[in-house]
Amino acid sequence: MIRKSLRMRPASLCAYVLMSAIAICASLCMQTQAQQTSSAGKIVKNVRDAGAKGDGYTDDSSAWQTAVNDGDVFCPPGVYLVGTTIAVPSERHIWGSRDCKLKTRDRTDIPVFTLTDVRDVFIEGISIDGNKAAQKDNGVGFGVFCEGCSTTKIIGLRIANTPVESIIVSKNERSSAIPEDVVIVDNISVDSSRRGMFRQHYAVTSGRRILISGNSGSSADGHAAYLVDIEPNNSGNPIEDVSVIGNHGTGVSGIAVANTATNGRIVKRINITGNNVRGPGAGAGNCFQVSYADYVSVGSNTVEGCGTNGVNVSGSNNVSVTGNHVTDFGKTGTVGETNGVKIEARSESVLVESNVFQANGPSFGIRETDSSGITVGVNDYIGAAMTPLAITSFRSSSQTSLTGKHLSVTGTVDFPVLNGDVCEEKSIRAPAAPESSTVLLALPPTLASIPGLAFNAFVSTPGAVTVKACKLTAGPTIDPPAAIVRVDVWINQ
Is 462 among the domain residues? Predict the structure, then answer.
């Protein structure tokens, strides 16, 4: 049998190899488009496989809805017009590149994503454009509407031009579902309200165990929106155990805990720590507002350019205002109306200590009316036209003390390197604190500003408070620096 060898000329062989390589690359690229790996390590489907164009002209709402109904979704670069809100089911992960942008169509006034009575939803990394200039008046153009959602994470979004709130966490009034365990971290909200509308960047109207950390918000059109607004819609919407930590706002009024007397005592255990707020100045309201809430800690924040008060405590009980730097307040109003801290409306058990108050004009450092149980420690008052104190009923204290039902202590915590989804605990001595106490934690900026890290505190054994640090994601390791923290303990009797 005669066998012939088959040989290719060099030029033909090169062409064959090149064509094979191109075919393989094309196949791999198609697979890469169809399947991407999220930061959580999951394989997700490309939204374009459901028919989305991403060309900035086609309404991609239906394609998006089909994709999220089928499972987890990846969004490649493009501008995806949305004319109908995307209803996200439970157990979904939506992930996108930085150049994936969802933009609401003209005159639709819709939330881009709606999460109604769902659990285990994770949205990360995409951009949202609310297209506010082309929307109707008094619309509901949220970026993300978390309505009764639980165990939900909204991380690393870029949100701009929403007619109202960028992200809102709310009770579902139809099913009475209350949001629980919601994490809002590392999002960026820019100019999130139409001119003339007093709306907020991030809002909580009901929920338990909500973390808002490492976010930023800015407004350039002169209105005095709050960076974070914690405000129940009615008496049936409790808000409990909310931490607002390490956020940054420019051109905004600050952070509000804005309950009303008619709602009752439904807002409890709010921790506002390590935030940096630069107000718009003239026309702005309070940098921090605490109204008709119980067990609130406002600690280690930096606030600047408030129109009236740095911190306004109204009708609230067991509030600590410690370690804040309040500057350039008193932009509007007359003396008696502008204050570093104003305490009013029968507030009780308020601690004001270790703050710096620097006034822009005639003002009071700390002013109290119609309240009781006010403890004033050592504060710094800067400004020739500022009167340090105007208080009718207070206890003056320059050191840690147990005042009625309230104990304040400080201690150093030094956590080890955190890997993966883990928590670490450190203890601080708190003499006379029983296990049934309520604890609020005030963090320095060196800890509060670390993205992806959440802290809480509780009385673990009589006389000892445990400070717990939890890493929220399985990303890079975190090595928190050693730092001094403050815990305020209220003894429940």
Answer: yes
